């Protein structure tokens, strides 16, 4: 994918699917990895055209020693782009389903950061491998057709995600008893 086509795709998503009105603030989740850094570059490039304020935010789960250094690089890059940068450190206890708990902690931290800066939306970067991994994990867990739908352009809020997951678990456990 060329840089121009990425700019076009992100621009369409922000103006169309995300329905961000002019003068809105967009929180861009960054990890320091190539996907989120590309998203930061593109949103910063589109900010004036779409009349958006871009704020970058990174979350350190405390699970990898290099994460803090990666966020330092992201902060430096954001500064070079003229984008405000914030970060949150969250504690995720080790144990079963660590990635899921880390993801929920990250989404809660991003939601708090978005609220603090008045952001109307949070942009996260995902690539095709993320989608494939999500489908495989859900397939292995026995998800049906609805559960296999992955990474929609606009995700529900963290509280709605939690309610939906709990509701789906209740339906699953009641059908398991049949």
Automatic annotation (TrEMBL):
The record's listing under Pfam families reads: ATP_bind_3 (PF01171)
**SUPFAM superfamilies the UniProt entry points to:** Adenine nucleotide alpha hydrolases-like (SSF52402)
Entry protein name: tRNA(Ile)-lysidine synthetase
A GO molecular function assigned to this protein is: ATP binding
**Region described as Disordered: spans on this chain:** 149-178
InterPro entries linked: Rossmann-like_a/b/a_fold (IPR014729), TilS/TtcA_N (IPR011063), tRNA_Ile_lys_synt (IPR012094), tRNA_Ile_lys_synt_N (IPR012795)
Q: Which residues form the tRNA(Ile)-lysidine/2-thiocytidine synthase N-terminal domain?
A: 26-156
Q: Give the EC number(s) listed in the UniProt record.
A: 6.3.4.19
The GO annotation for biological process reads: tRNA processing
Q: Domain of life of the organism in this record? A: Bacteria
Q: Which UniProt keywords apply?
A: ATP-binding, Ligase, Nucleotide-binding, tRNA processing
Which species does this protein come from? Labilithrix luteola
């Amino acid at each position: 994918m060329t840089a121009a086509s990425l700019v076009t795709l992100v621009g369409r998503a922000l103006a169309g699917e995300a329905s961000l009105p002019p003068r809105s603030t967009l929180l861009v989740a960054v990890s320091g990895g190539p996907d989120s850094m590309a998203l930061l570059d593109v949103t910063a490039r589109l900010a004036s055209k779409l009349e958006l304020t871009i704020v970058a935010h990174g979350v350190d789960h405390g699970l990898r020693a290099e994460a803090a250094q990666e966020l330092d690089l992201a902060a430096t890059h954001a500064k070079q782009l003229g984008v405000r940068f914030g970060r949150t450190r969250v504690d995720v206890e080790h144990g079963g389903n660590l990635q899921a708990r880390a993801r929920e902690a990250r989404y809660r931290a991003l939601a708090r950061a978005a609220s603090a800066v008045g952001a109307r939306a949070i942009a996260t970067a995902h690539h095709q491998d993320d989608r494939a991994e999500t489908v495989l994990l859900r397939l292995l867990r026995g998800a049906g057709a609805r559960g296999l739908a992955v990474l929609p352009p606009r995700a529900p809020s963290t509280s709605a995600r939690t309610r939906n997951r709990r509701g789906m678990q209740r339906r699953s456990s009641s059908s398991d008893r049949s």
